[in-house]
Amino acid sequence: MELIKPKKIFLRDHLELDEKWVHQQIADDPGILGLGDLVLRDRERIQPKAGRLDLLLQDPETDRRYEVEVQLGKTDERHIIRTIEYWDIEKKRYPQYDHCAVIVAEDVTSRFLNVISLFNGSIPIIAVQMTALQIENKVGLFFTTVLDETARGMVDEDEDVAEEVDRSYWENRGTRKTVALSDEAMEILRQFDSGLSPKYNKFYIGLQKDSKPCNFVVFRAMKGSLRVEPRIRRSEEVDAILEDAGFDVMPYNSRGGRYRLNISSTDFKERGETLKEIIGRAYRQQME
Q: Of these four, 24, 96, 160, 165, which has the most CB atoms within 10 Å of its CB?
């Protein structure tokens, strides 16, 4: 194959391609941001006494909304403040939705990356670095998430408030067969740590070790399947592994940082090794 060397260009200095052009590319295909299969809700959205929001995107599966602000060149304090301000306005106007602020810039400098990370503990915010490459008379845009939002545990994963139940509770809520699938999953888990055991809570079946929570994977017994939720940072690599294996995958839980797989007894037989690989990734990230 012939090697073609692309030329990196900076759109801030480009004579023809400007910020509105970038807006149009994202509006035409919001998936290029790498944040999931999103759809465009609005462009240049007027904010009361605060200017215009570049792009409002939404996840059609979860209805989560993303307030996106684009800046050519380096990000700066005005860009950060404007993004957070628009996120806050939209959140207050439409509290029925989950909202996430997204900063897009050609250069997210280490200084401002540190500033953004300080907000990330209390504000769901994502920083995406944009790179433009030119090959002959064509231009490609590449988006890389340099700061993902901090994974937040769901309320039902808070051990201080989780109501403990027994196995029969889940057998009544789901079926004996789907709860039995969690036993098969436990056999895989014990290959990584023999000290793990199940802990039955009202909203999920968790894990414990030495009587302490260790929930890098949780389970929910449904009527027709066992939902397995490993805590793994989302990546194209993991997405591809799950898709190639043919798992029934629900939308990624960004707030909890978990993939969600509906598992049947057939999956253990036909996709057991892939499931083991996914659980192993969750275990290793837990140990980091």
A: 165
CA-wise closest residue to 248 among 276, 267, 272: 267
As a whole number of angstroms, the distance between CA 238 and CA 241 comes to 5
Instruction: State CA 277 to chain mean position distance.
Output: 19
Judge whether 128 and 34 are in contact, CB under 8 Å: yes
pLDDT of residue 282: 93
| % pLDDT > 90, the chain | 42
**Would you say the pTM of this structure is higher than 0.85?**
no
pLDDT score of 152? 52
Distance CA 278, CA 268 (A): 13
The pairs formed by 238-241 with CB atoms below 8 angstroms and a separation of 24 or more are: 238/278, 238/281, 241/274, 241/277, 241/278
Say if residue 175's pLDDT is above 80. Answer: no
Residue ranges of domains in the chain? 7-147, 155-287
Domain spanning 155-287: CATH 3.90.1150.200: yes
Assigned CATH class of 7-147 = alpha beta
The whole-number pLDDT of residue 150 equals 60
